[in-house]
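Marked as duplicate of an earlier ticket. Keeping the data here for the record.
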Amino acid sequence: MYGKLALAVSAAALVAVAGNASAATAQPPKKDNLYSGLFATYSSSDDGAYVSFDVCGSTQESEGCYGGATLGPFGHACGVLEGAPKTKGDVVTRAIYVLDKGSSDGSQAVLDVYKRTDTITETDDTVQVSLIQGVSLGLPGGPGTECAMGEGPVDVFAATTASTQAAEINIKSLAVSLVGGFSPPSDVTSITTDDRGYVTVQFTEGFYVFAPDGDGEEDGGGSAAMVNTRNGWLIP
């Protein structure tokens, strides 16, 4: 059957088909996901004063490391999150959130919000970073504390182990709300998320669950952690 169909095609049609195939092959690859072959690795200085990242991987026609940036100085950076990337033409933008707990007793936690811009061509990725705003969270920090962060589609959640509430920071407006809390006061121990953007803030005496839209979903005593397909939940 297939042989008869092939014989029915004229020589002129075969030439046309061959020409179209050659033209299609010559076209450059589609840029459906400019950043698909690239990744960023983060590191910090021993004193937490600076956070650095390097972008490596491959573009359409090259591979290697292309650039990066050093963020800071901070009192003591203790957590980093990247926002969801947005693509327009050859440019990919995303937020970088750095939680700074401070370096001295009595320090207040600050969330520094950066804008990262990757201009990606077939052979290169040009990386630029600018500070958007330092957001005071109204939470205690200091050298003896540990930090927790999580992100949903609408809000970033941040806290320290010295805080009895968590800060919920709106991604668009950067407005801060303090959420959670128990009586008697209970310290935050961790923040976990799932793949859909549900967030759990765990306290020593209970937990709060927030929906992807940032609204409170549930609270109770005991423990409740979210798990996802990217990061493992570490059991204390």
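See parent ticket for discussion. The radius of gyration is 24 Å.
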